[in-house]
Amino acid sequence: MSTVGVRHHQLFIDGAQIDAPDHYEIISPATEQLVCTVAKGTVAHADAAVAAARRAFEEGSWSRKPPHERSQVMRAIADRLGEDSEQLCELEIAANGATLRQAMAFLVGYAAPHFLYFAEQAASYPFESTVATAAYPTASSNRIHRDPIGVCAAIVPWNFPLLLGIWKIGPALAAGNSIVVKTDEKTPLSLLRLAEIAHECGLPKGVLNVVTGDGPEVGAHLASHPDVDKVAFTGSTAVGREIMRLASGTVKRISLELGGKAPAILLDDADLDIAVDGALFGCMLYSGQICESGTRLLVPDALHDEVVERLVARAATIRLGDPADFDTDMGPVVSARQRDRVLGYLDAARRDGARVALGGGAPDGAQFERGFWIEPTILTDVTNDMTVAREEIFGPVLCVLRYSSLEEAVAIANDTPYGLTAGIWSSDPERAIEVAERLRAGTVWINNWHQIDPALPFGGCKQSGLGRELGQGALDEYTEPRHVHVDLTTRLDRHIFDALLSEPPAGR
Ligand code: NAD
Known about the structure:
Layout: E1 8-9, E2 11-13, E3 16-18, E4 23-27, E5 34-39, H1 43-59, H2 67-83, H3 85-96, H4 100-107, H5 111-124, E6 128-131, E7 140-148, E8 151-155, H6 161-174, E9 178-182, H7 189-200, E10 208-211, H8 215-224, E11 230-234, H9 237-247, E12 253-257, E13 262-266, H10 272-284, E14 294-300, H11 304-315, H12 336-352, E15 355-358, E16 377-380, H13 387-390, E17 397-403, H14 406-414, E18 421-425, H15 429-436, E19 443-446, E20 465-466, E21 479-487
Parallel strand pairs: 1-5, 8-9, 8-11, 9-10, 11-12, 13-14, 13-18, 14-17, 16-17, 18-19
Antiparallel strand pairs: 2-3, 4-5, 6-7, 7-21, 12-20, 15-16
Nicotinamide-adenine-dinucleotide is lined by residues 155-159, 182, 184-185, 215-216, 219-220, 223, 234-236, 239, 242-243, 257-259, 291, 341, 392, 394.
Organism: Patulibacter medicamentivorans
InterPro entries: Ald_DH/histidinol_DH, Ald_DH_C, Ald_DH_CS_GLU, Ald_DH_N, Aldehyde_DH_dom
Family: Belongs to the aldehyde dehydrogenase family.
């Protein structure tokens, strides 16, 4: 493929654009056309980025800046993310195939408010606090300082690169850390732009560095780097396990946001108009390539046929097409590899005895000859032991499972190694909340999906991850508590030293 005439993007290390001998070709998932080229980072680039981050951290131009001043710089960055959202949408969807409406609502639409939340946290977080305690035998004052950890590494996937980057960059910067972000090979553009914006807004050089590079080489190098203090990762559970292993060498702090296989329980009192549209929204937004998507719809026996009929009728109205067209409902999946993976799961479903009620393959039509397309697909007769019910498909594929009692529904819902999100469709909120209490998931949505607020914690139970992003505790993951104890006893005979020294000092 000729790269003549296309824009070339470079890495962002120590406040400067840095090129590399090799490059990635960024391909439009909708047309397979070359969008641009991007410098392909190496282990040496990762080392340079970590060294810059360490130097900046030790220098203190950010790490020791008063938190309210960090907050001001971060507010300026949040403002720019809002102002530049059109350009960021273009960069995001050109590489990952999300539709313009999805990018405006979620992928880029969430970026400025989420960054702003962390800017506000920089100003309000209790970096220093005094704790009243009666536990010590002598009077004391006890302070807790929450210090930045040092150099953080963030490894992000391709589905929500800008936003998932911000979920790590935001709290890291708010707490005074330096950070090196490794983008996914396919989708580096929006985060490279964020690094430029941040520096234009006054972030000192070296504090935020963005490198590209192959995961098993550059990502793994960062995860085991002796001078990296914390690794934050979003991606597959398999790579999450590897990151844990790599980070263990120097006992790094880690936070992991991994896969999901969320159950959506449709209760027998659900408003079916809302539940049917909501179940499709929950599963198929961004072609189903979201870790928190509701991919297993649990339907009571008595409503099964009606619900399936309605799901098929509504899903058949989803318009596939050019992601940049405002009227398009669903774009392609991100890559040929991802398309083939999804098709493989559909083959497995058929072999296992599931029925394809809608879709089930690549769409017909000249428009879909190029690009990586999968039809909106509804599978019925799915049982929870089938591969499609157990593994993350990451495509627009809704699995419908039957249940005959609420006990059975809860058991099926929890019968998964994952625990990121779950959902309930019901017209009785009290009853739904009682069911929610029995579900093992980091987030339970009742009568909605994809509702992620920066003020509320997000993360997984079981093999869906470790730690929580967002919420008031987000900065806890990027700080190290330091307890400073000041003893207030002025008289030796009132001290506790006699636990060892029973003889009074000479002359007393
Ligand atoms: P992945 O986990 O392989 O990649 C995510 C990030 O990790 C990328 O930046 C990649 O370069 C990096 N990486 C890969 N191998 C690494 C290693 N050995 N050490 C360090 N970093 C490494 O995900 P994928 O291959 O893009 O997608 C595969 C599947 O993962 C998807 O089909 C989906 O099921 C799941 N996934 C989940 C999420 C999520 O948000 N939880 C996001 C993307 C993919």
